[in-house]
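R.M. (postdoc): so does anyone remember the format we settled on? I'll just put the structure tokens first.
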């Protein structure tokens, strides 16, 4: 005995998603042309140059080292606190975002490190960092 199956449905095409995409594209191009019309109306004449190179990159961070004998170095050159302040003030005048990394000897006086940090703040340095070394596991920290 043969089974009676319902007649197969005719395939249909759902156009709703395609119509949504077309409308979104129309809106996108309408808004885009509106902006280009505004730009064409500007009477601004932009200056021209023969050659345009990249802007100067930000200078690398300055490094201040404080040794256990109280000696202070700025980028490898021995300096005093007053000279350090002056040089950092000059650096911030040239580039306001100058950053400084302070490296202090573990056996040095913290007073000297604090004076270096104060000199950096006096010079207008707002981006300060202090370097440390992570102790090895089991080695224990010095006190």
């Amino acid at each position: 005995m043969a089974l009676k199956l319902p007649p197969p449905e005719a395939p249909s095409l759902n156009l709703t998603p395609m119509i949504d995409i077309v409308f979104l594209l129309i809106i996108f191009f309408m808004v885009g042309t509106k902006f280009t019309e505004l730009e064409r109306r500007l009477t601004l004449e932009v200056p021209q140059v023969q050659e345009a190179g990249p802007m100067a990159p930000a200078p690398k961070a300055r490094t201040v080292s404080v040794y256990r004998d109280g000696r202070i170095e700025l980028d490898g050159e021995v300096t005093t606190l007053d000279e350090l302040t002056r040089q950092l003030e000059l650096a911030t005048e040239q580039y306001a975002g100058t950053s400084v990394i302070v490296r202090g000897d573990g056996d040095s006086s913290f007073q000297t490190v604090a004076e270096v940090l104060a000199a950096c703040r006096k010079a207008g340095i707002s981006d300060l960092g202090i370097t440390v070394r992570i102790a090895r596991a089991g080695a224990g920290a010095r006190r």
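R.M.: ...and that's the designed sequence above, right after the tokens. Also worth knowing: The helical segments are 16-41, 81-94, 110-122. The two ends are 96 Å apart (CA to CA).
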